[in-house]
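hey m, so remember when u said the tokens were messed up on ur end? i reran from scratch. heres the input so u can diff it against urs
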Amino acid sequence: MTQGEQNKHKEDTSEELTGYFNADDWKKDVIGGRIICVGLDSSSESQAAFFWAINNFIKTSNDTIKNKLVLMTCIPENCSEGNRLRLQNFLKTNMEKARTLIGDKVPLRAFLLRGDPRDEICSMVEKVNADILVIGTRGLTGVRRAMMGSVSEYLSKHSHCPCLIVR
């Protein structure tokens, strides 16, 4: 695969569900606010991470500190259209939940990623210039962890920003 084909493939691995957003709100500004990324899946641990990020990073925003929220979930490369739509609706539901909790003043973006969650989340964190990634952990142990790997462990070691793992 040529470099151009690889870049084209990388561009195709995410779908933004946000609609319109003000690009000026998303300029890197660590003094005026941070970009908080939350990785979501259907687990209860993921939802705990979502609420933890909202309560501890986003709700603390004010007129001086305007934190921004990025939600993301990942689907397998070979995902069926039905599952893609199901996860797209899951992400939209979490966007609506976030809007209910934080209102319209906090900038919000959401991405449906396609591929290996380890690689795609790391890539998106870098792309949006995140200041922190908040994720849940399923707490797999033993053989299951050895066979499936730990997404949270990988992200904590490879993401381009600090990673907060909520249990």
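this time it looks ok to me. Strands lie at 14-16, 35-40, 68-75, 108-114, 132-136, 163-166. if urs says something different then somethings off w ur setup not the seq
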